[in-house]
Amino acid sequence: MIRDATPDDAEAIAAIYHHYVKNTIITFEIDPVSSETTRERIEEVQRAGYPWLVSETDGTVDGYAYASRFRDRAAYQHSAETTIYLAPNSTGRGIGAALYRALLERLRTMPIHLVVGTIALPNAASVRLHESLGFTRVGAFTEIGRKFDRWIDVGFWQLRLDGADALEGTDD
């Protein structure tokens, strides 16, 4: 089941994220994020009008995805950046693709023209997921982050949403 996240999901989301913070280069955060901070992040994203979704199997949150404004400047208002994480034991079962599709469908109901996926590299699974959903690679920064005593590259993938032509010529 895919549904909107609630503040009550913060503990489960923080636990999923904790794995990636402590064991991978996928996120550039180094210190664990508390449930309370996670709750605040969920509320902030939703207050800004963006979706934060969770995937739930047998009553357990096994993944989450959300979108947020790409950058703060006004001209970026029709662009969103997406984030997705799955519980380590939930990968490879199609949950990520279903969750990401639901997020993209929600974004298509908003005045969003372009979606950006930011991927710490290497991350073959995330690259495959993004490209399977129609994202194309548009560039990368080399050695932009440092974690676990190594330099990390970051790639950028983008997806132009269907129906985005309706925004052409508007500045609001």
CATH superfamily descriptor: Gcn5-related N-acetyltransferase (GNAT)
- What sort of overall outline do the alpha carbons produce when their principal axes are compared? globular
* Total discrete domains: 1
Mean pLDDT: 93
CATH class: Alpha Beta
Helix content: 25-40%
> What's the total number of strands?
7
pLDDT < 50 stretches: none
Q: In the CATH scheme, what's the topology name?
A: Aminopeptidase
What's the Cα radius of gyration? 16 Å
The biggest beta sheet, please?
7 strands, mixed
What is the topology, as strand order, of the major beta sheet?
A: 1-2-3-4-5-7-6
Series of secondary-structure elements, N-terminal to C-terminal: EHHEEEHEHEE
Class of secondary structure makeup: alpha+beta
Compute the number of helices.
Answer: 4
Strand residue percentage: 25-35%
Any idea what the CATH architecture is?
Answer: 3-Layer(aba) Sandwich
Distance between the termini: 35 Å
Please give a quick description of this structure:
The protein has 172 residues and is of the alpha+beta class.
Written overview of the protein:
It is built from four helices and seven strands; from the N terminus they run βααβββαβαββ. The protein has a seven-stranded mixed β-sheet, with helices on both faces. Strand 4 (79-86), helix 3 (95-108) and strand 5 form a beta-alpha-beta unit. It has one domain (2-167): Gcn5-related N-acetyltransferase (GNAT) (Aminopeptidase), CATH 3.40.630.30. The protein has helices at residues 10-23, 35-47, 95-108, 124-132, and strands at 2-4, 52-57, 60-69, 79-86, 114-121, 136-147, 150-160. It is an alpha+beta fold. The model has no long low-confidence stretch (mean pLDDT 93). Helix content is 29%, strand content 34%. The termini are far apart.
